[in-house]
Structures are given as C-alpha cells and as structure tokens.
From TrEMBL:
InterPro entries: Cyclin-like_sf (IPR036915), Cyclin_P/U (IPR012389), Cyclin_PHO80-like (IPR013922). Keywords: Cell cycle, Cell division, Cyclin. Residues 186-208 are annotated as: Disordered. GO terms for biological process: cell division. SUPFAM superfamilies: Cyclin-like (SSF47954). GO terms for molecular function: protein kinase binding. Belongs to the cyclin family. Cyclin U/P subfamily. This is Cyclin. PANTHER family: CYCLIN-P4-1, PTHR15615. The keyword Ribosomal protein does not apply.
Amino acid sequence: MVEATVPRVVSILSALLQRVAERNDAAAAAEEEERAMTAAAGLTKPAISIGGYLERIFRFASCSPSCYVVAYIYLDRFLRRRPALAVDSFNVHRLLITSVLTAVKFVDDICYNNAYFARVGGISLVEMNYLEVDFLFGIAFDLNVTPSAFASYCGVLQSEMAYLDPPTPMDAPRLHCYSTGASDQHDDHTATGAGCHRHNQHQPQLTV
C-alpha cells in the first residue's frame, strides 16, 4: 500500500515550532528557574523530533490538512492566554498532540478516540484526557474559527514556507489551505507576542 504524502502544512508547522522551541530552550537554559511548568511540560525531552512527531500524527491519526491549521490557531490562543508559558522541547510534543486532538474533533466528521491519540502521541490515556481538559480550559473553550481567521493563519504559514524555501521567479509554491466551514462568529485578533519570526510587516505576529 502506498503511503499518503505528508502535506506541506505539516512540515511548515513543524519547522516553525522547531525554531521557536530551540530559541526558548536557549532562553530557559540561561534562566532555568523562570521556566513555566504546566500540565503540558514533560520531565525530559522526547527523542523524536518535532517534524517526526507531526508526521507520525499525520500517518496514524488520518487528520485532514485543515486540522493542522486549526491546531495552530488553538495553540496560539492557548499561549496568548498563558503568557508565562514558552514553547520548548519539554512541552511542544504534548502541546501538539493535544491541539491536534482538539482540532480534529471540531473539524473532521470522523476521528479516533482519546485512547488511540494517546498511543499515537506516546502518552497514557489518563495523561491525554488531562491534557485535553487543561487545553480546553486554557483556550476558554473558544473553538470556533472564522474563515477570515483561518485565512490569516494560512497566510502566516505561507510566509513561513517562503522563509524556508524562497521561490524563484519561475517557481512560486503555494500552501493550499481549505476552509473548515465553521460558521462561528469569533474574529481572531493578531497577537503581539514575539514567538514567531516575522517575515512580512503586513503579516500578523503570533505567539508561536
């Protein structure tokens, strides 16, 4: 059986979070006593890379590409409500599996249960359930995503792709993001945190 090709959004999101985690790891090493500890923080750094982890989620969880954009939106909302929390190598994997789990339940018609996601994420079912509840309260159960917010975050990921792979005049790659179809009334405002490299002055600056 031929394996499905990993969507570009997965590699872009993993590269973005890898850069953020590495920068915050360096800051934490300088000021270890100030590193925020939450339910998502692990005791050791997982051996699997962020990219490898997201690809594992893609291959085994069968999420639609839109789920990764929505997971990114949820993660940004979570971090904006917890400004003391920095994405680093100790928590990024748990934040990812939890945000994707939350997104797939809201976006996709069919999804696996928490026990399956726990196995995919390499954690226990008890921890998966706890992380989900903590995450939902962390975003104040703000799950709706407007088409304009979805398009805005797609633009950020598009900018990230341009940063990773500068296009030539004859080759201008595009990140194809698809609307979730959500009829929500929430209108995201861009965050002012400094967690994401800002490639374009007209792009929103996000927490991650």
